[in-house]
Task: inverse folding
């Protein structure tokens, strides 16, 4: 299969202080996959995403998005941070947070207008949060907050989506709603990369997977590499999953 | 002095007018910028900055030998900025946590400033008296020129705030996300911090090193209680700050010339106290009222639900029962029973109660209703 490479990571090494968090990562992610990054706590999953997005500075290595450095391709990339990374008591509304997704295309100083508002309302509709658009964000449940973050990324109208644990602390209904949106994105030809914790749902949700534990253990289609061997290598214990064919 | 007379005096008396205007502008500026400090959880930064400004004042005096307030404040600005960026440096480059970094810089700079002040006081220079007023501030020393400088800086700050509103807001809410959008977060950060330092330095003459941080925090903390919109919060904080200045000056001018700075700070704290208690959505008073009301409703619903379960077992829902089977465990009191009667859910006949059709329907949809409210 001849697929375009959406994201290419070369020799990426990241260290906090002296301890390496990511060691010599090489990664090629083809366009149009819905990929899970799995690995134990402290494996560097979030760090990998943050380094690709330029939030963290790697000590070595390079990242390219469709062949060019990230700085030149920002418009193609959307990001959903971990829900816990912001203060949800911040004085603002759901609609306002979603509008923030349009700030990147607006650039400095220019204010969002009707066009941006319309896009934000559409994104809210897509995640089923339109009735809550004027809610203060602290008065939303955890699942609703996660949907707002997702809507903010949808507004960015990107080709590549990075999501840091979008299923953390959400109920089953929200999880299904979110995964359906992610699958729709893939259907539209977008590339979606998700830091994921629940190994049981990997075969059901994703078609591509990367095993990570400081080093890259394996990356490829779920049906080829999601097996006990790789899981054991990643998690260091004898891991048994039964994959229903 | 009565109020009308005082107001007349504010417009006619040059000194009083200057001071009132100065403290009002100062309060507005610090309130506005304080909102950003509070929302960034950098409340204590203001305290560190104002203390860090003291050696700058002393050094500026030692170098120029003059007591021109603008020169001294320039010194304060420089040393305040140095202190601030040292704090940031310590936090980003070492393992030391931000509260420790703040404490270190605060005490280091303040100690050095006090040392310089005592050194200056031993000098044979007749000009030296009165530098220590920067410790607690002295609004009476404000002259028209100072007020113009304040107005100018506040004006610039307002323009910058309006221009970069979107950038400030998104940085405050989600810095990492802001970075991925391509904004230089460092630039926005430096811009906010610089203006916070500027506002603090402006207030040193009036409120002083020790109490200045209250001017930054109090109006913002009060404003947060009343609104869930950032724009309204910043506006309200500016209004609270300005009012603190005006009222503070009034109290100090009419009551035996009480020191203005501390009075302004106390008035600002009154705003905070009132806001904490009386704000409709976040205030303690209404929270308590809502709590009591909820508990009362719950008791009522419990009694109604109990009656419903009994009535359900009869063909005729209005079949009368004795009140003796109701007890406190089901939330029953004479009061709740009276309320149920009042709501027309229950009819009473001596010691016998019976559920009405309305009551039966209300009870059966009790749990569904709670679900749909979620």
Result:
């Amino acid at each position: 299969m001849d697929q375009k490479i959406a994201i290419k990571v070369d020799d990426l090494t990241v260290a906090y202080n002296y301890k390496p968090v990511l060691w010599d990562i090489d990664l090629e992610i083809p366009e149009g996959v819905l990929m899970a990054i799995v690995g134990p706590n402290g494996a560097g999953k979030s760090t990998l995403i943050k380094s690709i997005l330029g939030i963290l500075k790697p000590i070595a290595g390079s990242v390219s998005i469709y062949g060019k450095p990230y700085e030149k391709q920002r418009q193609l990339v959307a990001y959903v941070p971990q829900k816990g990374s912001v203060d949800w008591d911040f004085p603002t509304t759901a609609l306002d947070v979603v509008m923030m997704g349009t700030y990147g295309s607006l650039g400095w100083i220019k204010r969002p207008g009707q066009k941006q508002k319309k896009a934000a309302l559409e994104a809210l509709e897509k995640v089923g949060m339109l009735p809550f658009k004027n809610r203060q964000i602290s008065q939303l449940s955890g699942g609703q907050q996660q949907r707002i973050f997702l809507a903010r990324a949808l507004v960015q109208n990107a080709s590549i989506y990075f999501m840091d644990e979008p299923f953390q602390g959400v109920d089953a209904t929200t999880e299904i709603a979110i995964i359906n949106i992610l699958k729709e994105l893939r259907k539209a030809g977008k590339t979606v990369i998700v830091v994921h914790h629940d190994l049981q749902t990997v075969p059901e949700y994703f078609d591509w997977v990367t095993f990570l534990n400081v080093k890259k253990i394996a990356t490829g289609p779920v049906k080829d590499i999601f097996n006990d061997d790789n899981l054991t290598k990643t998690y260091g214990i004898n891991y048994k999953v039964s994959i229903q064919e | 002095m009565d109020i009308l007379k005082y107001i007349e005096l504010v417009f006619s008396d040059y000194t009083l007018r200057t001071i009132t205007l100065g403290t009002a502008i100062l309060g507005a500026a610090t309130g506005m910028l304080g909102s950003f400090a509070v929302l960034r959880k950098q409340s204590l930064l203001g305290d560190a900055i104002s203390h860090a400004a003291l050696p700058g004042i002393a050094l500026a005096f030692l170098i120029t030998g003059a007591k021109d307030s603008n020169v001294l404040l320039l010194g304060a600005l420089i040393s305040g900025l140095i202190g601030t960026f040292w704090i940031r440096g310590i936090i980003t480059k070492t393992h030391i946590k931000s509260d420790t970094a703040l404490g270190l810089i605060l005490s280091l700079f303040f100690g050095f400033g006090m040392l310089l002040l005592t050194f200056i006081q031993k000098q044979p220079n007749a000009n030296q008296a009165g530098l220590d007023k920067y410790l607690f501030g002295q609004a009476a020393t404000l002259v028209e020129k100072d007020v113009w400088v304040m107005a100018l800086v506040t004006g610039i700050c307002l323009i910058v705030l309006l221009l970069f509103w979107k950038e400030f807001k998104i940085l405050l809410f989600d810095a990492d996300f802001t970075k991925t959008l391509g904004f230089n977060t460092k630039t926005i950060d430096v811009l906010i911090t610089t203006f916070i330092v500027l506002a603090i330095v402006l207030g040193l003459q009036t409120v002083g090193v020790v109490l200045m941080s209250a001017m930054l925090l109090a109006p913002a903390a009060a404003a947060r209680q009343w609104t869930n919109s950032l724009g309204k919060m910043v506006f309200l904080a500016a209004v609270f700050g300005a009012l603190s200045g005006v009222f503070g000056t009034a109290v100090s001018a009419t009551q035996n010339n009480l020191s203005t700075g501390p009075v302004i700070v106390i008035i600002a704290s009154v705003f905070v106290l009132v806001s904490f208690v009386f704000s409709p959505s976040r205030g303690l008073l209404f929270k308590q009222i809502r709590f009591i009301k909820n508990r009362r409703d719950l008791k009522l619903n419990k009694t109604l639900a109990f009656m419903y379960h009994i009535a359900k077992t009869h063909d005729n829902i209005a079949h009368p029962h004795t009140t003796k089977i109701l007890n406190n465990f089901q939330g029953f009191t004479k009061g709740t029973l009276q309320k149920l009667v009042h709501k027309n859910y229950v009819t009473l006949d001596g010691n016998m109660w019976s559920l009405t059709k309305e009551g039966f329907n209300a009870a059966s949809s009790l749990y569904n209703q709670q679900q749909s409210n979620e």
Summary: Residues 3-282 of chain B form a domain with the ABC transporter involved in vitamin B12 uptake, BtuC fold (CATH 1.10.3470.10). Residues 137 and 205 of chain B are 5 Å apart (CA to CA). The mean pLDDT of chain B is 88.
